[in-house]
Design a protein that fits this description.
Elements (H helix, E strand, L loop, with lengths): L1 H25 L24 E3 L9 H5 L5 E7 L18 E9 L8 H5 L5 E3 L14 E3 L5 H24 L1
Antiparallel strand pairs: 1-4, 2-3, 3-5
Length: 174
């Protein structure tokens, strides 16, 4: 009989204890922030955010692509032709010797290790404060950082082929 009364006592006290704890927190301010409306950037020092590329600083050395453990970086370059008047300029305003025609990073396969950022001797690759990669399609995670249009790339390739042909005929005539 005593055990029966203890069980009844526990059945009444346990929900009351739960209600006591709940009532203590029900009127306090909320901790959760509504993300898109109230964005408060509180990022740790070693965050793994989106990578960005300053293409004017990029020399086309391809060290970042070689050092990427997941092979997420794809770079194509062509040699700049001295006769070309529209050679892209570097950050110092000098004409580039190598033109980067393609600089793609696939963030769908990137592991955000930061090796590309460390390897880059020119400071062209850096991290931003953007960390949201929301997209419906995986193909949207491939970013192109080249600042040349496809027509400009074809023009540069044609100029290089023409220049190489001229150099070859000049060498044969000597």
């Amino acid at each position: 009989m005593l055990k029966y009364l203890k069980d009844i006592y526990q059945a009444i006290i346990t929900p009351l204890q739960g209600m006591k704890i709940t009532s203590r927190y029900i009127f306090t301010s909320r901790v959760t922030r509504k993300y898109p409306e109230a964005y408060i950037p509180i990022l740790p020092e070693a965050e793994r955010n989106r990578i960005d590329v300053n293409i004017t600083k990029c020399s086309g050395c391809q060290l970042c692509a070689k050092g990427c453990p997941t092979k997420s970086i794809k770079i194509d370059t062509i040699k700049a032709v001295p006769i070309d008047a529209n050679v892209p300029l570097d950050e110092k305003g000098k004409p580039k010797k190598i033109i980067v025609t393609k600089f793609d990073i696939d963030f769908g396969t990137c592991c955000f290790c930061g090796l590309c950022e460390e390897i880059c001797n020119f400071g062209a690759i850096y991290r931003t404060e953007v960390f949201d990669y929301s997209t419906y399609y995986r193909k949207d995670l491939k970013y192109n950082f080249s600042n040349l249009a496809s027509e400009q790339i074809e023009e540069k390739k044609n100029l290089l082929a023409k220049y190489n042909a001229e150099q070859k005929t000049a060498m044969e005539n000597k």
